[in-house]
Amino acid sequence: MPSASNLLLTFLSLFGGDGLAQGDPKAPPVAPPPATAGTAQATAVRRNTGANSFVLELDGQQQSLHRFNGTAQRLESQSGDGSAVRRSALPALRCEDFTVDAPLQLEPALAKWLGEALSGTAKLKDGSIQAIDVGGKSTIIHRLREMAIRSITLPKLDGASKEALDLRIVLGATSLKWEEGGEAQTAKVGAKSKSAMASNFRLKIDGINCDRVRSIGAIEAQFQIAAPSITGKERERSGSPTVRITPFQVEFAETSPKELVAWFDDTVAKGPAAARTVKIELLDATMKNVIATLSLDGATPSRLASIGSSDRESTAGFVLELGATSLKLDFPTK
User: Fold this and answer.
1) Residues forming a β-bridge with 235
2) How do residues 191-246 score in pLDDT, each as one tens digit?
């Protein structure tokens, strides 16, 4: 245990060391205490050794990620009905779903897998997510078996936004194993790819003037994954997954209601026969080149509302809520 005199010197050096020098000019300078766990210096060292980026490895290709929320395992009761489990029964090990944000400049393997999921033909995939430090070495490897896509989300698009735009993907897996990394990456991974912007988009709907679109709400495709089955030596999905596109809103500013009302009334009279195709083009900084295209088939309006405004800086308009039966993602060939 440090002596009382050492504690006093330490206190004065931290909070009033200069007072000691003024009171006694001959007093020797007090050396600062060595850094220990919990001090600012030690904390800085720990932060500098952290991961700098994350990479998803799929079908031999490495996809840089802008965000990864981590993986987790948990033990669950096997009673099934919520009742107490026998003392001898072992709990089931479950891998929790996890989320990644990927730039729209997708590697071919991930782009293909997303397309297969949207068309209902995707298979379960083995892969890994690696944490890469500033020196280019993997520090932690998350080994994932039989991954399935739970959902794909395109965040809200807004002409006034200054936010970067990524695809948010929720994944599930049947098993997870953490491994220590250490190997240097030969591929250029973790590089900051050019992010698309949430403000750079173009909407196209047949028969609708979309020049004054202010924003498009988040669009999410949710997948109900069927349980896998054993077929020969391969483990494949038993049946196609059910794909559901959540309703989303399109906000028009200073738009004549004529075309919107006509489509809405047509839907009231004809139902699904009034469906149209909605296309959203995501553009680069020049607003000329297309980074990706979302095509929503079977789109019909479910709600049309006017927007009032008392703010001089905002404008009145209309909000159209749409539903769709399918979604397709197209990426230019890399």
Assistant:
1) 230
2) 445 668 999 999 999 999 999 999 999 999 999 865 544 444 444 444 457 899 99
